[in-house]
Amino acid sequence: MPSLSKPGTAAVRTLALVGPAAAGKTSLVEGLLHATGAIGAVGSIEKGTTVSDSDPLERRMQHSLNTSVLHLTHGDTRIHLIDTPGAPDLLGQALPALEAVETAAVVISATTGIEPMAVRMMEYAASRRLDRLVIVNKIDAGADLPSLLADIQSAFGRECLPVNLPADGGKRVVDCFFSREGGADFSSVEDAHRALVEQVVEVDPEFVERYLNDGDVDASELHAPLEQALREGHLIPVCFVSARTGAGIPQLLDVIDKLLPNPTEGNPPQFLEGEGEAARPIEAKPDPSRHVLAHVFKVTVDPYVGKMGIFRIHQGTIGKDSELYVGDGRKPFKVGHLFMLQGKDHVEVASAGPGDICAVAKVEELHHDAVLHDAAEDNHIHLKPLAFPVPVHGLAISPKRRGDEQRMWDILGKLIDEDPCLKVERDASTHETIVYGLGELHLRMLLERLREVYKLEVDTKPPRVAYRETVTAAAEGHHRHKKQTGGAGQFGEVFLRVEPLARGAGFEFVDQVKGGVIPTQFMPAVEKGVRQAMDTGVIAGYPVDDVRVVVYDGKHHSVDSKEIAFVTAARKAFMAAVREARPVVLEPVVDVEITAPETAMGDITGDLSARRGQVSGTSHVAAGQVVVRGQAALSELIGYQSRLNAMTAGQGRYTLALSHYDPVPPHVQQQLVSQHQVRDED
């Protein structure tokens, strides 16, 4: 069983390939694995033979749906690769990969140029203080590479400089960092080399002085300032490759080996000890001799294998039989088997140290974002949370077969364990189970997994809007419940008044009964009857909110009065009062924030206004992107992603957050009341 403690932390590189779908990340992984002898032949996405895309759904759809972890060796350097899906709906899979690496490699297709997903991942990587690398793929496709490089520098900064250049029409690639000479398809190796050296020496005054005095500095002496420039974002290397032909693959491996940081050189992960404002930053030391700190960035749940946690070791050494705590858990688990992953294959290893990415299986306590440690005093340490996008695309689901409700909840829980951008909740007001994701593709993949992996068939429909009812005036209601069936009867009489409360105030129950006309022991039954009517609604079948109910009179019978009689009397008295209190239906109004290309801003603001929305402001963000903020009725935004895709060519995204409730327009209220009356008649 191999050990990963050698060749040492300094010889480890960790790299996440991120960026848009169809940029060629999975094909690039195949090329790197083949070039280093990790696989005998390059796999094909079309034939479903790649190492990364091992899931049957991925093979059928011919693009990545899950994060895949791989490893290879180049010379004496061990390289951990994470291949991520590029669809915006699958950010819950892609973003956690940034927690496990020193370098984020943003892959851009030479044929399609800079896409929004590349911009987003570059921003996320910068926010996590990762070294960044741009890989331009498909250089053999005849694209205008000089213009693309200019676009990259315009979008991401002048610090994006090529460390190699394509030559012979993209058939090969020439180094520009260590070499000063050679022919290239554009620019020149000498000019590119000079620009790189000048950019690197700027971070170190000593090298600046040498450069000014001598006119040049040998690139082999620039390791320390180079790593500083990468850490500070002062240099973002650009590499050119063709995963299809293999051009640039050897040079990319050399860049990873010679230029990218090892775990001792990258910015340290942002660990915190404690919670909230009291949390203080602590630094994990990439030292194999210290106590263990590792972070679980991915969880998979297989119906046959069980739960598996994939983690990056930041400090210490983990070996077979190590005892580890999960977060603030008080009982450690024993590492029975320690794995490295090669796609779906598990390679068992004896031990692993800082920088290594490994996995353990069949530990139920594991969860996404957990910190593994071997010292009880570290139970309050956690990694600074990632800013995940909020899932707002909802779908109401229910099992086709009666009796499968609990099984459906159990399976959904497992799928949510795997993806932090999935959410499920039971809406008490609409009695629906709603799954929320980042878009239609996200939820479609969830439904496919329910059906194909877990053999669970479900019905789906758009979720109902959680309307509310309230009153706008005070009114009184009265009901006498009297029932005689030959034996003991039922009797209860209630007089009450309803009054409107401020929006969001909820419910207030007031007992103003005098003289014991309703005995004290029956007042809980009166309140229960009122709450029953509030839960089921009065005019449109939605919960009643923001009302005060004052019970001021009533009657009882010494023999026939029972709790059920006062429950019924109070419910019907409340309904009578509400009908006279100018009732209205309230709808949820949400804050909406839309991020889209600047060219679509006019269409978006106009469309939002047409949906009974109001625009409160706009602001510009990176590279031609704009954020539109406003408010709109939630009912007008059902299925909004499809409309937004049409206006932005699929480049827009949005988030929603509940703001408040407002009365619906009169015609909408009339429609909702009519629908409720039809349901009652049925």
From TrEMBL:
SMART domains hit by this protein: EFG_C, EFG_IV
Alphabetic keyword roster: Elongation factor, GTP-binding, Nucleotide-binding, Protein biosynthesis
Recorded GO MF terms: GTP binding; GTPase activity; guanosine tetraphosphate binding; translation elongation factor activity
Stretches assigned to the Tr-type G domain: 10-264
A GO biological-process term: ribosome disassembly
Record keyword Ribonucleoprotein present: no
Keyword presence, Transport: no
Classification via Pfam families: EF-G_D2, EFG_C, EFG_III, EFG_IV, GTP_EFTU
Gene3D superfamilies: 3.30.230.10, 3.30.70.240, Elongation Factor G (Translational Gtpase), domain 3, P-loop containing nucleotide triphosphate hydrolases, Translation factors
Source organism superkingdom: Bacteria
Cited PROSITE patterns: G_TR_2
Record function comment: Catalyzes the GTP-dependent ribosomal translocation step during translation elongation. During this step, the ribosome changes from the pre-translocational (PRE) to the post-translocational (POST) state as the newly formed A-site-bound peptidyl-tRNA and P-site-bound deacylated tRNA move to the P and E sites, respectively. Catalyzes the coordinated movement of the two tRNA molecules, the mRNA and conformational changes in the ribosome.
Record-given protein name: Elongation factor G
Organism: Ramlibacter aurantiacus
